[in-house]
Design brief:
single chain; 0% strand; mainly alpha; globular
Length: 338
């Protein structure tokens, strides 16, 4: 090999090593919730708690959701107005789905399952926290919520927090997309179609990873530190240093993005310890988000995120455990995420 080719070869090797490590960490993060669930089910106490809570509730969601879906599908105004089912009696209509309308039936059933699942969680999410406590002890990490006395009650504050989380998530993504409007304009100038959708998708994916990490109280350890995470800091630096962006409109959009996203700076910085692992966890949340599946994996997902928060970029647990007082932003995110 010629001597002048050696540096390029070494650089290519280093890039390959980095890429392989990134893939391994991503796969680790994606598999972690399922590994936690498998390990917990091997423990008799954890398995018993999981069966009594998650499995029985999942069966209940399927039964109640199906009853609701059949009842709605049988309503004359619904299937005639939306064209969901073919004309005829209820039994014939369910079987004889109008050609090309299967997705409508699937949407109806999925929505009914989601409504039933939300109702179950509104009354019994304390029991899922109890399962998380047992799972945490099984895998060897201190539980974040050590409550041992769950009770059935209609938790209005929990529902209110879920609604506020979704509103805040929308505002964060919308403001983040607006702060990147100069990039959108450049893409549109070069004739790239759907540039706004592309940018919004990238921003939404980033914040989905952050929102996933925010489920753990350990993501909020450094909440008092108001330093922006790396992507936002780079955007701020660009508006200050680039002559193309250092003017009123781009800076105004960036300030708007800062204002709406500042409450999430702590978990956004936390994911920088091991980005590919947290991306894998966020993808696992998407895969397990459909109704019923979410009930079966909800506790394991929270424990997996907490476990990853205690690990450095080498995959070893390095951060000490401990509680923190709940601030408003932290209380809005912990224990359910977006």
């Amino acid at each position: 090999m010629p001597p002048e080719d050696a540096p390029n070869s070494g650089s290519a090797t280093d890039e390959a090593v980095v890429a392989m490590r990134w893939i391994r960490r991503f796969w680790w993060g994606f598999c972690l919730p399922f590994h936690v669930l498998r390990q917990a089910l091997e423990d008799p106490q954890a398995r018993s708690r999981w069966i009594r809570t998650a499995l029985f509730q999942a069966i209940g969601v399927v039964v109640i959701g199906s009853v609701i879906a059949i009842g709605l599908a049988g309503a004359a105004h619904l299937y005639r107005g939306l064209g969901l089912l073919a004309d005829g009696r209820l039994t014939d209509g369910i079987v004889e789905i109008a050609q090309g309308e299967w997705w409508k039936l699937g949407t109806l059933i999925g929505t009914c399952f989601w409504v039933a699942q939300t109702g179950f969680l509104a009354f019994t999410h304390d029991f899922h926290d109890g399962v998380s406590t047992v799972m945490s002890r099984v895998i060897g990490i201190p539980p974040e919520d050590a409550s041992e006395t769950p009770r059935i009650h209609f938790d209005v504050p929990w529902l209110r927090r879920k609604l506020r989380r979704r509103i805040r998530g929308f505002l964060v993504v919308a403001s983040g997309t607006a702060s990147l409007s100069p990039i959108i304009l450049v893409l549109m100038f070069f004739g790239i179609d759907r540039s706004a959708q592309i940018v919004a998708g990238v921003v939404g994916a980033y914040w989905w990873v952050v929102f996933s990490a925010s489920r753990s109280s350990r993501a909020w350890r450094d909440e008092a530190n108001r330093t922006p995470p790396t992507p936002i800091q780079k955007l701020i630096d660009a508006t200050e240093e680039s002559r193309w962006l250092n003017w009123g409109l781009p800076r105004m959009f960036v300030r708007i993005g800062e204002r709406f996203s500042s409450s999430m700076y702590a978990p956004a910085r936390a994911i920088e310890s091991d980005p590919p692992a947290f991306i894998g966890l966020a993808l696992a949340r998407i895969v397990t988000s459909p109704p019923v599946i979410r009930l079966l994996t909800r506790s394991a997902m929270g424990v997996a995120i907490s476990d990853q928060m205690m690990r450095g970029d080498n995959g070893r647990r390095t951060l000490p455990a401990g509680g923190l007082p709940m601030s408003e932003a932290r209380a809005e995110s912990v224990g359910g995420g977006f």
